[in-house]
């Protein structure tokens, strides 16, 4: 990996994290709920876009470098498995079992389906 590619991935990761912070804040200000909707939206949309990038890369539409900068960099910074995990545990500790299961399992299922849809769409291009 070249130093320029490494720098691109690192910078894209920072931009992705900043975008996550903004999207999360906007959604939390508008949706008041015990369920972590903002994290769910971030992870599902990130999975959809990552799937699309993977599909584009698999079809040869984008280079491996673009795939790495967007996928590992930007979308790696944008999505947040650790926050999703902590929020699920918090819900379970608060004995909000339905919300906790929906958060843990629901987000996983929705994210995987979104990624599959993204790959399929990317391969159509």
Automatic annotation (TrEMBL):
It catalyses: fluoride(in) = fluoride(out). The chain crosses the membrane at residues 41-61, 68-86, 98-121. Keywords: Cell membrane, Ion channel, Ion transport, Membrane, Metal-binding, Sodium, Transmembrane, Transmembrane helix, Transport. GO terms for biological process: cellular detoxification of fluoride. Its main location: membrane. It is a multi-pass membrane protein. Na(+) is not transported, but it plays an essential structural role and its presence is essential for fluoride channel function. The keyword Transmembrane applies. It is found in: Cell membrane. Signal peptide: none annotated. It holds the Pfam family CRCB. GO terms for cellular component: plasma membrane. GO terms for molecular function: fluoride channel activity; metal ion binding. InterPro entries: FluC. The keyword rRNA processing does not apply. Na(+) binds at residues 76, 79. Belongs to the fluoride channel Fluc/FEX (TC 1.A.43) family. PANTHER family: FLUORIDE EXPORT PROTEIN 1-RELATED. Fluoride-specific ion channel. Important for reducing fluoride concentration in the cell, thus reducing its toxicity. This is Fluoride-specific ion channel FluC. The gene is fluC.
């Amino acid at each position: 990996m070249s130093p320029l590619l490494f720098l691109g991935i690192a910078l894209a990761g920072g931009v992705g994290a900043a975008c996550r912070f903004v999207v999360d804040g906007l959604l939390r200000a508008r949706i008041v709920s015990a369920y972590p909707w903002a994290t769910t939206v971030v992870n599902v949309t990130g999975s959809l876009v990552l799937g699309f990038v993977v599909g584009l890369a698999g079809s040869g539409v984008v280079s491996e470098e673009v795939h790495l900068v967007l996928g590992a960099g930007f979308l790696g910074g944008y999505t947040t498995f650790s926050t999703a995990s902590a929020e699920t545990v918090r819900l379970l500790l608060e004995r909000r079992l339905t919300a906790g299961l929906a958060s843990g399992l629901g987000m996983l299922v929705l994210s995987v389906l979104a990624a599959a849809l993204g790959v399929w769409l990317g391969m159509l291009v």
